[in-house]
Structure formats: structure tokens, C-alpha cells
Write a structure and sequence with these properties.
The protein is mostly helical and 96 residues long. It has helices spanning 9-44, 48-89.
Length: 96
Amino acid sequence: EELRAGRTLRAALEAGFSRAWTSIRDSQISILIACAVLYFFGSNFGASMVKGFAITLAIGTLINLFTAIVATRTLLRTLFRLAGPALNARRWLLGV
């Protein structure tokens, strides 16, 4: 969408990250809320497996959030920096 609007590769990448952040944040927060509910009810009713699942899910969600923010952004910025000229010449590879 951003490339079709005429933005450069770098501007399109940054705009895509900023647009995606709200969706990523909202989904991860809702999962963490569900983890808190599972942990609370798991400890109240003696279901230690539910508690363990809640902790495991929360850890996985936090790792996923870190990966979405830091690792993916860094890898894509590096890829676009290294392959930017080639991708600019072949914009059809990006669906434009």
C-alpha cells in the first residue's frame, strides 16, 4: 500500500511498522490479560496445569512481542539497506 502510494522503500517500511504497531500491541495485551485470568482462576481452583499454561503463554507472548518489535524491524531494515537498490529496480518483487 505504501509503495503504491509513491513512498520510497525506507518510508514505506517505517510507515508499515507504525501502522502495524497498534494491532500488535492490542493483540498481545489481550493475550496477556487472558493469561492473568487463567493464572488467577488456576490458582483459585487448584488447577496447577492451568497456572503453568498461563505462565508459559505469557512468556511466549512477551518473547513474541520482543521479536515483533526488535528482531523483525532490525532484520527488515538491514535487508532493505543491503538489497534496496536491487529491490528499487525490481519493485514487482514487492508486489508493486
